[in-house]
Amino acid sequence: MVYKLLFVCLGNICRSPSAENIMNHLIAEAGLSEQIVCDSAGTSAYHIGSPPDRRMNAAAKKKGIELVGQARKFQASDFERFDLILAMDRPNYQDIIYCDGEGKYQDKIKMMCSFASNHGDKEVPDPYYGGEDGFNYVIDLLFDSCAGLLDYIVTNNQLSP
Ligand code: 4NP
After folding, report:
1. CA-124 nearest atom, ligand 1
2. Contact 18, 142 (CB under 8 A)
3. Across residues 7-28, what is the average pLDDT?
4. How far apart are CA 52 and CA 161, in angstroms?
5. How many CB atoms lie within 10 A of CB 108?
6. Strands laid side by side in the 36-42 sheet
7. Distance (Å, whole) CA 38 – CA 71
8. Distance 128 CA to ligand 1 centre (A)
9. CB of 105 closer than 6 A to ligand 1?
């Protein structure tokens, strides 16, 4: 069985592609690339087809991560395709929940920051209209959250390389 993760933000050009690429990096380091796969999506259609934001990529590169991907919109069929859906902030979470009209998939939807252990944030802040520090902070927070998320998945699914 391959465990499938979907990271979701608003535009799918800053936070969720960062989470996806950082998570892929940690999964590869752990030797679990055959067992856990990642994708990302946005709740909006604003940037469909676009690559990750240049400022976000610059922040990721400082930590050794190259952001790759092409923005797409979250769709209801993602509920069946993925095992876990990680929302970056509360509006993202609410938008995803709204797509799950019957409440069938609620257990699959979680807040990304609930896996962080070195940050008290409840949400991954939207860096889009801010400065460089905001982008750097998102990368730090996502490294922390992704590490906790990987531990959670490995433990709950008894995965080993
Ligand atoms: P993201 O950031 O949701 O982390 O990809 C944003 C990207 C674009 C916009 C807002 C946030 N926007 O308003 O276009």
Report:
1. 4
2. yes
3. 98
4. 30
5. 17
6. 36-42, 3-9, 84-87, 109-111
7. 14
8. 5
9. no
Q: Is 28 exposed, middle or buried (0-12, 13-18, 19+ CB in 10 A)?
A: exposed
pTM of the shown model: 0.98
**Alpha carbons 92 and 76: distance in angstroms, whole number:** 14
**Is the CB of residue 89 below 6 angstroms from any atom belonging to ligand 1?**
no
Nearest alpha carbon, ligand 1 atom 7: 11
Q: Out of 53, 124, 128, give the residue to mutate to test ligand 1, the one with the largest number of ligand atoms within 8 Å of its CB.
A: 128
Phi, psi for residue 107 in degrees, rounded to 5: -65, -20
The per-residue pLDDT for 105 is 98
Pairing of β 36-42 and β 3-9? parallel
Report CA Rg, the chain. Answer: 14
d(CA 144, CA 138) in angstroms, rounded, equals: 10
The pLDDT value given to residue 114: 98
Whether residue 145 contacts residue 112, with contact meaning beta carbons closer than 8 Å, is answered with yes
Ligand 1 atom nearest residue 15's Cα? 4
The strand ranges marked E within the chain are: 3-9, 36-42, 84-87, 109-111
Q: What residue's CA is closest to ligand 1, atom 6?
A: 11
Amino acid symbol at 129: Y
Just list the catalytic residues. 9, 15, 126
